[in-house]
């Protein structure tokens, strides 16, 4: 349970006390015969050295400081989708999960994002759906609704759908929304926050929206 | 909130009082240039007439009685994967979500699964990861652990990973595990159960395991 004990202080970006490690389990699905080479190419371009990483036959898990987890996932998506292929991302972000502390050593890293310089100028329209699950708190619906408001403020909210909220726009705006919603939800009574994200990129069905 | 008020009685399979509608938001990702025709072909083969269904640019949502929701999702997966294509499923099952009641009329359907006869003889190895989120209950970890035990009893549990549990084996065994875990979790204090599932099928990385 040691990963549930403390927070990174927002003022300094330095983690204090026992680490509060974040993580993301994700899969990228390029809908092309060249899916293997696309994924391998992206892996070569993404710097994951500030995160613990493990890939199995279903998904990849990265763990470490929140900013590096988001940095790695966004970079993987962009380096795959810049090829023009239709790509889907499925991701589950989590923080405060009672469990083991594998990768805790990565909490000592600084807050400089390794991949942002190479990707910040890449434009990419994405359509996505996200859902927040603040665990162990009877007032969880209020936390969820507050973060739908966060998306509204960012201008990325598309609309609510069953079991999720739609976000769309440029990938950087959408990821900023997701990261802020994930952070803000941690200010609730829940110490364990889960956020699922499904993203569709370069879909044939997006052409009307973006042209 | 009307979909949180009552349960389907296990003895009769008949829903009583206000409906307890289940739902699943899912996406199928065939990793081939022919992804559009594969999905369209599967849609033509699956009978969704006992469920409410809506597809947007990111995912498809089906709602109705639990058994029909699972029947439709399994059939969509099998009719897509029987082509031999590498296919990934991402699905979020939910019941008891406070929200609207769209599709409630489908709760009056009987319990005869429309797609099972056409798919029950199809064999398919799948590797998957699932996670349960029993909402609004401080004792949620006990509910999760009990359902990992359910998977152990089914013989489909592969191993626990960060933020999920691995299930693998024949698709029918894996879906039986998922459906039972989802049902059993509803016996907890939580009235709102969410279950995410990621499934990888016909992956090049499975060849060693299945041959």
Question: Which tags fit this structure?
Answer:
homodimer, 211 residues, alpha+beta, Alpha-Beta Plaits, eight-stranded antiparallel beta sheet, 6 helices, globular, disordered N terminus
Word description of this protein:
The structure is a homodimer of 211-residue chains. Chain A is an alpha+beta fold and 211 residues long. Chain A has a single domain, classed as Alpha-Beta Plaits, CATH 3.30.70. Helices cover 31% and strands 28% of the residues of chain A. The first copy, chain A, has six helices and eight strands; from the N terminus they run E-H-E-E-H-E-H-E-H-E-E-H-E-H. Chain A has an eight-stranded antiparallel beta sheet. In chain A, strand 2 and strand 3 form a beta hairpin. The radius of gyration of chain A is 17 Å and the shape is globular. The interface between A and B is large, with 52 and 52 residues.
């Amino acid at each position: 349970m040691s990963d549930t004990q403390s927070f990174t202080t927002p003022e300094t970006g330095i983690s204090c006390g026992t680490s509060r490690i974040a993580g993301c389990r994700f899969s990228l699905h390029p809908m092309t015969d060249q899916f293997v080479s696309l994924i391998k190419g992206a892996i070569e371009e993404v710097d994951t050295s500030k995160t613990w990483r493990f890939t199995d036959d279903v998904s990849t898990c990265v763990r470490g400081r929140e900013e590096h987890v988001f940095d790695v996932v966004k970079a993987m998506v962009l380096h795959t989708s810049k090829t023009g292929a239709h790509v889907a991302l499925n991701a589950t972000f989590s923080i405060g999960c009672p469990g083991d502390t594998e990768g805790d050593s990565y909490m000592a890293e600084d807050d400089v994002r390794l991949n942002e310089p190479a990707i910040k100028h890449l434009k990419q329209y994405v359509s996505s759906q996200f859902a927040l699950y603040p665990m162990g708190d009877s007032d969880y619906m209020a936390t969820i609704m507050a973060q739908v408001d966060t998306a509204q403020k960012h201008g990325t909210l598309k609309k609510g759908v069953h079991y999720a909220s739609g976000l769309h726009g440029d990938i950087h705006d959408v990821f900023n929304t997701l990261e802020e919603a994930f952070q803000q939800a941690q200010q609730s009574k829940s110490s364990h926050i889960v956020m699922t994200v499904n993203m569709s990129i370069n879909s044939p069905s997006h052409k009307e929206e973006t042209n």
